[in-house]
Amino acid sequence: MYKKLRLAFPFLLPGLAGLLIFYGIPFVGGIWYSVTDGRIENSFVGIENYVAVWKNQMFQLGLKNTLELSLICAPLLFLLSFVLAAGLHRIRPAGAFFRSSVLMPYLMPSSAILVIWLLWFDFGGPVNRIMTALGMDRVDWLTGAELRIPVVLMFLWKNLGFCVVIFLSALQSIPESLYEYATLEGASFTKQTVSITLPLVIPSAFLVVILAFVSAFRIFKEVYFIGGAYPDEPLYTLQNYMNNMYGKLNYQNVTTAAYIFALIVFVLFGLLFLSQRQAMRRLNGGD
Amino acid sequence: MKKTNTRILLWILTLILAVAGTAPAFASAGDRTIIHLSTNDGYMESSINAVFRDGDGLVVIQQGFDREVTRYADLKAEGEQFDASEWTMTNEKPENLDAEEIDGIYYVSYGNEVGWFSYNGGIYMFGAEGTYENDSSVIKDAAFLRLEMKDGKAKCVTTDLPHPDFSEMVEDSGDYQYMNSLNETYVSGDTLYASVYSSNGLGIFAIDLKTGNCRQYELKEFDEMCGGPEGSLIISRSEWPDNSDYAILRLFRLDTESGDEELITELKEVNDSQLNLSYDPETDCLYYVMDGELWRMPGADPEKAEALNDCPITGQGMLFMPDGFVVVWDSETVVVRNTDPSQRGTTMLRVLDNGYSSAISETVYDMNNVRGDISVIIKREYTLKSDILQAMMNRDGTVDIYVLDYDSNEFRALYNRGYLTDLSGNAQIMANMEQIQPYIREALTQDGKVIAVPLAADGRTVGINMEKWKKAGGTEEELPKTWDQFFDWLETVPEKIANLEEAQVFETWMDRRDFRSNLNDLMTNLYQVRMELKGDDSYAFNNELLNRLVTRAAKIDYDALGLHEPIDDDDEEGGYISYEYKEPLLTVYGSTTVNQDSTQYETLNLAFEEGEDPVLPVTLTVAVVNPFSENAEAAAEYLSLTAKNLRTPNAYTIFTGKTEPVQYAYVDSQLKQMAETIEMYKGFLEKAENGEEKSNIEETLHMFEQDREEMLKYSWVISKEAIENYAKRLPFLMVQRMLSPRMMLSVGDESDLVYKMFYGEESDNVTPDELLNTIDKKIQMMRMEGN
Lengths: 287, 787
Fold this sequence. Notes:
The complex is a heterodimer.
Chain A: H1 2-34, H2 48-55, H3 57-90, H4 96-107, H5 110-120, H6 126-133, H7 148-172, H8 176-184, H9 189-217, H10 221-227, H11 238-247, H12 251-283
Chain B: H1 2-22, E1 32-36, E2 47-54, E3 57-63, E4 67-72, E5 79-82, E6 89-90, E7 99-102, E8 105-108, E9 112-119, E10 122-133, E11 136-150, E12 153-158, E13 170-172, E14 177-179, E15 183-188, E16 191-198, E17 201-208, E18 214-217, E19 224-227, E20 233-239, E21 247-254, E22 261-270, E23 278-280, E24 285-290, E25 293-298, E26 306-310, E27 317-320, E28 325-329, E29 333-338, E30 347-353, H2 358-370, E31 374-380, H3 388-393, E32 401-405, H4 409-416, H5 427-434, H6 438-443, E33 445-446, E34 449-450, E35 453-458, E36 460-464, H7 466-471, H8 483-496, E37 503-504, H9 512-534, H10 544-555, E38 583-584, E39 586-591, H11 597-600, E40 602-603, E41 616-625, H12 632-640, H13 648-654, E42 662-663, H14 666-687, H15 691-713, E43 716-718, H16 720-729, E44 733-735, H17 741-745, H18 751-759, H19 768-785
Parallel strand pairs in B: 30-31, 30-32, 37-38, 41-44
Antiparallel strand pairs in B: 1-29, 2-3, 3-4, 4-5, 6-8, 7-8, 9-10, 10-11, 11-12, 13-14, 15-16, 16-17, 17-18, 19-20, 20-21, 21-22, 23-24, 24-25, 25-26, 27-28, 28-29, 32-41, 33-34, 35-41, 36-39, 36-40, 42-43
Helix pairs in contact in B: 9-10, 14-15
């Protein structure tokens, strides 16, 4: 095993060096900022910034909105991408075109997509026209809490393709012979799904969940383009808070907010990891 | 012996010190400011028309009330002035030019100067002759005249060059013909090339100096032109990508025979599309001025481009001189710069200027005289593109001096985090501070330390033309003291001035939306300043008082005030409303500082509550020193010199003890000229032979007298009234520390919101509640975030 590691090390070195220089060191270095007062002398203040940021109403609002948006977006993205991947998996080889198509939004720049999105959800835009044609009232989609709907839809539209591809590759890697054998043994579709598909897809599903949450945590560009630095309260995210604090030259609060959030994310992902292990054990017939 | 040696050594040292004391006051050897025309009142008595190389020296042609021609034998020489009083006079009748003869002297009538160029060692003027026929101004002819400098006199004399074919160059606007100036002139062989701004945009003309034939090149829009290699031209085009603060400048070689273009290179991240491009054929290098520095690019290779020296002007022309010097000139300045980068000063002071205050750029010339060892590089950014916050975070001292608006978010961030250098160590700055108005001085200090120097001041509120008000029978006592009283009073104004034929309530251009949005902007801003003064930071804008005032602004009788409906931009009539011009009684642009407008308008000093003092805002532009600058001392020295370069209105606003009115420099000579004319006509009046002639002359005399009065009225940079009005406002003035609520709405790229709430069509339907709640929401969020 050590011999294998020695062989792999030269290949891993560039990547690890990049990770260390661009992520590891700044991550650790930033901790210093978060425990200083931020004035030019940069005096040590202990955990004062953590207490102040945690108590700040706008940080709380940003955190709440970010978590809420993530809890809406990530599960939706997970479910939709799984359903779509399963569908595309069944219609191969004709699904090649659709498989490529779903990736297209992921490749498009957000600013370009946003212009189209704004036109669609404008007060006099096609969405409202369809609604009035169906006898419903028009909705001001681009202000207030209603803005969350276009933002969520845009997030799904943009990120769906990538998650579908991950699920598809997982589905396609399951040997067809397993299903054939199970069919010969008289296993039902449900039994096949529970006993073959799910155990083999769970590692990829875990990856999709993580990616979905990471992407959802980063919903900012879309909100910033529409609502600016201070959007309506339901759309004010943690990134708004950090961005605005940067504009006030308050790096201390930026880093402090980032570490608090990182801690929450670590805990969340830790729980996800544990639940994945539990699920794997159960599906593999463990206790 | 030892004593003698010491004495000799001391003598040598003294000699070195004496020589050093008189050495040229520039960082690079040979650098020099030959001419710098500038006045603090913004009025230039003359401007530089053209500069040409003349052997090792220069010829500078200026035009003001009189023409001035100066020759410099070399780049170190003093100028030799030539008498240009006989500019187009000749004793002999010109053979092929129109000339009017008066008492045996011929006046060549090609006085309309179209352009200048240098050809075969001579300096030539392209002149045009215009006449007035059948109520129309017509360009009759054009000719080349040669500049002759002889016996202390400068004249434009006739030449053997053919008459140019100028038909393509004439512009016609109805009954008025004119010719556009020839710019960036360049002669290659026997062809004169020049760029010309016309109604069709910028174009290039080529005039054959042997035949006079003229050719115009069909080109796509371009920015600049200069001579290129092997008889070609180089033209530049800038492209400003969306959402980018910098342009890509593409340089093309234009084949003058075929008119074909070929891309030769690209300059990326260019801050300006005008770089004063110049090509030196001897070294095959392209020279240009960018971000306050002179650059050289060998072989059209941007990778090889290097900054050679500082350069205070971008310029509109560049000349290559002996020994590697260049002369850069524009309409105000001529400077010489050494192109040997090894001779640059050891200290480079970098200034990021917002371009709205001339004090920073004017101080370069003073700094050169005081600290010649320092090279000052001024980069101008009209909108702040450089990320100051990023620089602070990186503790980057590249820029030594920043020019910022005092109420900007950037300044506030630096102030709140203590990132402003203490300037109290500079004695001159401290001496200047003693002279600054107390309300401004207070804003420039933090914890007892001076942290900024003022460069410009501005501010506005409602203004009233007191002359008209009194003429309408109004008194000072009748004027409103509070905003509520203002709206009551406004209802009575139309009736009050009904009999005053020459006046109306507001400016003609102002429509209902303009009125409402400007007033809402003013009231919300003044309210914020008032609450800041009270030290209250927990207030809401949507309170009973502001809501009532905003409602009153929306419900006022617009028709009675003469405020018309907003004009639709798509209106087939072109959105033009024709009204007879009348002087407005009121303006929403009344200046709170000292300037020309404050002669005409006094401010209405309105409080929000009865018995309360009004508060009037002043916004400042200030310069600060980067706390991470390695040249902080030199930077402070630079800023200490800005005080004497402030524009006169700014100096009168910022400093105390300025009580003398200031008249424009041109007034004396113009008054003298007018007095002479009036005296001449009075002489004619005495000699008048009949009643009709007498009455005609009297009428003319009356007209001259009126003109003189009018001129006197508007001849003040700072009038006595402006000074008195400012003194009356002083107790109520306060430096604005935060962006106005309207500006706050645009923080973070939300210009749409400002448009919706204030200026756009949608704003007509915005209710007072909606407007004030929108402001509240944003400002509350900002407050809740904290600093």
